[in-house]
Amino acid sequence: MAEKTIVTAAVVGAEVTRAQNPAVPYTPQEIARAAVDAGRAGAAVVHLHARWPDGRPSQAPEHFREIIDRVRSAGSEVVIQCSTGGAVGMSLDERLGSLVDGAEMGTLNMGTMNFGDEVFVNTRPDLVKVAGRLRERRLVPECEVYDAGMLDTLRWLLEKGHLAQPYHVQFVLGVPGGMAASERNLRFLVEGLPEAVHWSVAGVGRFQLPMVELAAPMGGHVRVGLEDNLYAAKGVLAKGSDELVSLAVERVGRAGREPATPAEARALLGIT
Ligand code: KMH
Ligand code: ZN
């Protein structure tokens, strides 16, 4: 029996807006509802960002606390992963505001890169700081890998003792400035992992569901949601991240695998 597939729902990022898709959640209440709905649709993990009510990206601890409280009050057991990426232009200290009590995982962005027309800054000292904070707070890191050289950075963090199992790798493919979401690139990246570790892929835009179809038979895990993609099909806006999760779950099933429950995802990811 193949290992179960962890479906992560990235229900809102820092970049997408309601003008692009009215289903993009902004308030903690809306983001929590989107997370709970994604969990019902089959997501085991939710990757969280926050917003100010007017839609500006927020890493304010109070926003993350409210989202997590609301998710748990609704009875959802989804694994909570908080973004330390935040938005381009935020200071690292501001970005770390998301790591509040109740978080179980935090992202660790693996290097500086062009992110669209901007620069997403993650120097090596930044990485060491984020990794240290995740360790202090006993959060499982999810390493966000956008480009091949970032795997060498991952190896460096391991060698220097800044990172150790358990950790998870998310290949985020298709960001303008990073590696494209292609089969060749995904296979190359998976082969280049420095050690046996669970990995997942998040394809940006129209590559989101094709990357699910590719990764599921390869034994990978998958991420979908409005952070990375606003459409359920060509020209058809997604009604929410839960719809994208349902589409991913269908594809995982077609590959002969089953979606992991939150408890199964915790066991796979080493969350205690
Ligand atoms: N918003 C992007 C600049 C993460 O969540 O850790 C980075 C991002 C990564 O979304
Ligand atoms: Zn994110």
Structure overview:
This protein is α/β, with parallel strands linked by helices. Helix content is 36%, strand content 19%. The chain contains 9 helices and 14 strands. It has helices at residues 28-41, 61-73, 92-95, 124-136, 149-159, 183-191, 208-218, 241-254, 262-269, and strands at 7-10, 45-48, 50-51, 57-58, 79-82, 105-109, 113-115, 118-120, 140-145, 168-173, 199-203, 221-224, 231-233, 236-237. The strands form 4 sheets. Strands 1-2-5-6-9-10-11-12 form an 8-stranded parallel beta barrel, surrounded by 7 helices. A two-stranded antiparallel ribbon has the order 3-4. The chain has a two-stranded antiparallel sheet with strand order 7-8. The radius of gyration is 17 Å and the shape is globular. The two termini are 24 Å apart. 53% of the residues are buried. The model has no long low-confidence stretch (mean pLDDT 98). Bound molecules: (5S)-5-amino-3-OXO-hexanoic acid and zinc ion (ZN). Zinc ion (ZN) binds next to loops.
Q: Determine the fraction of residues in helical runs and give it as a percent range.
A: 25-40%
Give the strand tally.
14
Q: What is the spatial order of strands in the main beta sheet?
A: 1-2-5-6-9-10-11-12
* Order of helical and strand elements: EHEEEHEHEEEHEHEHEHEEEHH
Count of helices?
9
Give the strand content: 15-25%
Q: How does the major sheet shape up?
A: 8 strands, parallel, barrel
Decide which structural class fits the backbone. alpha/beta
- Give the overall silhouette: globular
The ligands found in this model are: (5S)-5-amino-3-OXO-hexanoic acid, zinc ion
> What Rg do the Cα atoms give?
17 Å
Give unreliable regions as ranges: none
Terminal Cα separation, in Å? 24 Å
Question: Kindly state the mean pLDDT as a whole number?
Answer: 98
